[in-house]
Amino acid sequence: MIPEFEPHPLLKNGHAMTIAAALVPRKFKIQPAEARRFKVEEGSFLLGHCHWQPRKRRDAPVLVLVHGLEGSSDSNYMRGIAEKAFHRGFHVVRLNQRNCGGTEALTPTLYNSGMSGDYRAVFEEFSNGDGFEQIFLAGYSMGGNLVTKVAGEFGASVPKALRGVCAVCPALDLAACADALERTENYLYQRRFVSGLMERYARKQKMFPDRYRLNGLGPVRTVRQFDDVITAPQFGYRDAQDYYEHVGAKRVAAQIRVPFLMITAQDDPFVPYASFVAAKISGNPAIRFIAPLHGGHCGFISKHFGPERFWAEQRLVDFCQEHAAG
After folding, report:
1. Does the first or last residue of the chain, that is N or C, have fewer Cβ atoms within 10 Å of its Cβ?
2. Shared-domain flag, residues 82 and 161
3. Range of the domain at 204
4. What's the average model confidence in pLDDT over 33-56?
């Protein structure tokens, strides 16, 4: 029985919850991590921060975490989940997506919401290379779309070592999310995302001036504009809409057969609840779909203290433990 989400009484507004989750300082008690590079493509690597159980036991389950847009392995929810899972006996890997967490030099490419192959490569390295037999994937927001896409692409051919997948507020329909960000009340989120994306792009341009240009781009004030003039052409898509249609996990969610936990909030400011209804997520028996009225975007700060304060993190770790052998 999954405990009902009871929001903090001051955070029953989706915007308040979203902002509080991003800004409230947190302290974490977890052993130092070991840095590790994962080759995901010729010339491209991801940097992970690995919290290993003693002696790197092969019988302990591995939880691989993927952050959201403009996040990193140091995002609060990444550290919060890592702390909870590690103390339950999991090895935990906090992954940076390409270019994130100061890793621009590890790949000549940008990053996008369709790079599910990166996480299949990490999974295969842990499974076939390291010999781990119980591996879980979990992602927030953009990372949620990526791990959902991985699960859907496996379809019925789920590798034995993949025991479960979790997604919190996954951006399954990127066009709907981009449209939502353009609402007046979402101006601050839009500005923050675009500012971060453009700063990252400028750093890439300095590193790879022959590959990226700054002149002639025109004004970029929205995520959709960024994807129109930068992401789409860099990855061979016609425009932002073409990119969104190809990389959104809504296209493959019906094919998911691995045990899957999906959590979203009906008051998420820019991942519309309607997109989950349209994708018929609740109709897939492999997916345990939970959608409280409140929670904001990846917030879920509850009225309770202790481990239950960050409710979605606790549910994710509970789910993984439920599906781990031994």
Report:
1. N
2. yes
3. 184-247
4. 96
